[in-house]
Structures are given as C-alpha cells and as structure tokens.
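#lab-general

N.A. 3:47 PM
ok so I finally got the sequence cleaned up, no stray characters, all 257 residues accounted for. can someone with queue access submit it? mine expired

B.Y. 3:52 PM
send it over

N.A. 3:53 PM
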Amino acid sequence: MIRSSRFASSVAAVALFLVAVPAAAQDEATSPRPAPPVVPAPAIGEVKQPSISLALERAGGIGYAKASSSEGKNDSSVSLTALGVGGVTLNPFAVPRVGLDFILASNLTLGGAVGFTHLSGSTSSGSKSEDLGSTTLYTLTPRIGYRIPLTDKIDFTPRAGLTFAGASLSPANSKNDASIFALAIGADAPFAFRLTDSFNILVGAALDYTVSANVTTTSTTTVSGPTGTSSSSSTKSDEVKGTLFSAQAWLGIGGYL
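B.Y. 4:20 PM
back already:
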C-alpha cells in the first residue's frame, strides 16, 4: 500500500511538471519585448553645414578706381573704370584671386585670399621686335566674416580684412626699375547661389582703401672708360603721399567642402 502511494505521488509530480513548463514558455513568448531605439531620419531638403569655402573671386565684373596724390601745393588724381571678365587690369584690388575660408560651427569664417597677375608686351616690325616692359601685381588678404544662410540655396557672407598689395614695373630699354608696396583696409559682401551642395555662383561687391604706400626705385648707371665698363646701382625709397580707392561689383565661382 505504501508503494502504491509513492507511485501515485511520483506520477502526479511528473504531470504537474509537464503542465507547468509549456505554460511558462507560452507566457515568455507572449510577453512584450522592448522596441529597438528609433534613429531619426534627416529632414527632407536639409542642407549639410559646410566647413570650408574655396572660391575664385573677382574674376570679372565692373570696377572703379581713383588714385590721388598730394605733393606740396599740387594735388592730382587719376581714375580708371573697367568692365570685363578675366581681363587685364592695372588696379591691384581688381586682380582675380583665390580665396580659402574655414567656416566654424557658429558660422564665423576665418581665411584669406591671394591674387597675382603679370603683364608684358612687345611690338614687332619685320624682323625687329621691341620689348614694351612688364608689370607684376600681387595681393594677400587675411580676413574674417560671418556666413548668413538666407535660404537653402542662397548664402550671404560679409567680410572685412587687410590687403597687402605690391607691384613691380620694369620699363623697356630702361635701367630704372620701380616697385610699390601698399597696405589697405577692405570689405566685401558676396552672395553664394548654391547650384549644388558643393558648387556656387558668386556675386559680390567690394571696397578697398589704401592707408599707406611706399615706392622703391632702383637706378643703374653704366660708365665706359679706358679701363673698361663699370656699372653702379642706387636704391631710393619714398613714402607715397596719396591714396587709392577701389569699388567693384564682381563675379566668381566657388564651392563648399
């Protein structure tokens, strides 16, 4: 009788285990699981914040320059107006330049621009040719600005900075060379029309005004004598008592990186 009771208890325990295990598995299968985190998708039409701007500036447009000097009691001035695309110019502030600016997260821009041009000429008549001389112009402009996104496709970036400008003149058949170095303050305000995320058409305006300038002339003298030919050179530097004012409406191309 005791054996029958133990056997019945064992059967009841096994049956209870077989019923409890599937029920627990079913409860686990039907219990809700936490949903995976949802990663927000970028908004449609959202423009990526650029970090670098690279541009060819002042490649064309219309410009006005006026140079004035005051020597003693005599004041004189000369003005120049030019219109063209990539044309020859004697105005150092209208020289096409390459600009590179870093755009910070606050939209503050830090960068600069470099410009360079070289002009030379000659004439020929039959088998004879004559050199007309050459002129070299260069500019270096460190600057600071602020980028203002007006729309998804248009940016406005007013900037201000200093321009270090230089020029050298070598007249034809002359032993006298001259060079000039000037310091100017300036500001420009280009609009960038974004044709793509990385290509822009630039339309801007610029003002430049010299605050100081120096001219250096080098003269070479050749003397022939019984003992041969000798040459000597002398250099003279003078401060220019005058100013140069330049205003431009210019075109260019650029891109964001």
